[in-house]
Amino acid sequence: MISQAQLRRYIEQGFAPLACAFSTGSDSTLTLRVFEPESGRVDLVVTGIDPRTLATEADVLAMIEELLYELRSNSISLVHLS
After folding, report:
1. Three-state DSSP class for 78?
2. How many CB atoms are located within 10 Å of the residue 11 CB?
3. N- to C-terminal Cα distance for the chain?
4. pTM, whole model, 2 decimals?
5. Which of 2, 3, 13, 44 is 20 to 30 A from 79 (CA-CA)?
6. Which of 49, 69, 66 is nearest to 7 (CA)?
7. What is the total count of domains within the chain?
């Protein structure tokens, strides 16, 4: 099982150069906020991440890839709306 410190490190590295903030809910799930560090603009918020489902490095990397895809998709949509 991956520790929360390792999980956070993988996620922060995966989203660099964006910054990440984490909070833990009363049910032990994580909320991840991905933001632009200089402006503070929030690009992605994910709630209900169950760390127990992220038992291996492969699990974590798959989640990061999925969230990066979502982030890129949202960014493209925002560009088209401008």
Report:
1. helix
2. 22
3. 43
4. 0.84
5. 13
6. 49
7. 1
What are 10's two structure tokens?
């993988």
Structure tokens, 63:
């989640």
pLDDT digits (tens), the chain, 82 positions: 788 899 999 999 999 999 999 999 999 999 999 999 999 999 999 999 999 999 999 999 999 999 999 998 876 544 444 3
Helix (H, G, I), strand (E, B) or coil at 16: coil
Contact between 34 and 19 under an 8 Å Cβ cutoff? The reply is: yes
Nearest to 20 by CA among 63, 81, 82: 63
Residues 29 and 49: beta-carbon distance below 8 Å: yes
Task: List the domain range (segments joined by +) for residue 68.
Answer: 4-81
